[in-house]
Amino acid sequence: MNSISNTWNHPKTSAAGLLIAVVTIAGALSRQGITLGVAGNGTVITLVSGLATALLGLLARDPDRSAGHDTASDTNSTVKLGAWALIALLLPLPFVGGCSATNVAQQIVNWTPALQSAVATVDSTAGLLAPAEMPLFAEATAGFDAASNLLVAQAKAYLANPTAGVLAQLQSAVAIFQQQVNASLLSAAKITSPNSQQHVLNAINAVGTVVIAMLALVSSISSKIDVARMAAQSTTKLVAVRPYLDKGLATAMVARHYGEPVEMAQVQVALADANLAQAGF
Questions:
Q1: 29, 93, 21: which is closest to 13 by C-alpha?
Q2: Stretch 58-71: mean pLDDT
Q3: Residue, of 102 and 99, whose pLDDT is higher
Q4: Residue 96 lies in a domain
Q5: CB under 8 Å to 52, separation ≥6 — which residues?
Q6: Structural domain of residue 228, as residue ranges?
Q7: How far apart are CA 157 and CA 160, in angstroms?
Q8: Reduced to 3 states, what is the DSSP secondary structure of residue 35?
Q9: Model's pTM, two decimal places?
Q10: Are residues 208 and 230 in the same domain?
Q11: 3-class state of residue 42 by DSSP
Q12: What is the pLDDT of residue 233?
C-alpha cells in the first residue's frame, strides 16, 4: 500500500524512476546486442531509450504549478529530476561501462579511499571477535592489506599511463583481489556465532563492494578476450558467495560514492552483478 500511495502522491518522481529504469534496461540490452528490430535508421531499443530520455528532460523542465504547491518545493523537485535526467543521459552507468579509459581510470582511483577505509575496518574487526574466532578471520583476510595496496598502486599507475601493459597488471590485481574477497566470504560463513559472523560479513562486504565496482570498471575498458581470461581465472564464482553478499550495504555505498538516489544505485549494483556473472565471474 505504501508503494501505491507514494506513486499516487508523487507522480512525477515515480514517472522519472520508471523512465530511468527504461533507459537503463535499454542500455543493458543494447550492450548485449539485443535490438528488438529496426526502427528507421536505428533500432527499437535506441528509439525507446531516446524517447524515455526525452520524456525525462520534459519532466525536469515542467514543474507543477498547480494550486497548493509552493515555489521552493517545485524548484527542488525540478532540480532533482534534472539531476536524474542527467544521470540517464550519461548512461551506461558510472561503473558498468561505456566510458573512456581515462575517465574509468579516474573513477577507479576515486574508489581507492573507500577501499583503504574498508580494509582498515577489516583490520579492526578482529578485536570484536571471540579469541577462538580470530584465527579463522585472520586467515581469511590475511591478504587484504597487500592486495589493497597493490590495487591502489596499479589504479594510479594506469591513470598516469593508460597503456595495454599497465592495464594487464590492473586486470590481474583486481581479479586476484576479487577472488580473495570471495574466498573470505565463504570462510566467514564457518563462524558459528551470529553476532561475530555479522561483524565479519559486514566488514568483508564493504571491501567486496569496492572491489566489484573496480572489477566492473576494469572490465568495461578490457577486451572480450581479456575479460574471458580474467573470468577463467576466477575459480570461486559470484554465484557461490551471493548468499553472503549484502546488496543493501553495496547500494548505500554506491549511492554515497556517486552522490545519487538509492534507486539509481540499486540499478547500478544489479547491472554490475548481472554483467559480471554473465562474463563468467
A1: 21
A2: 49
A3: 102
A4: no
A5: 19, 20, 22, 23, 26, 88
A6: 101-279
A7: 5
A8: coil
A9: 0.68
A10: yes
A11: strand
A12: 87
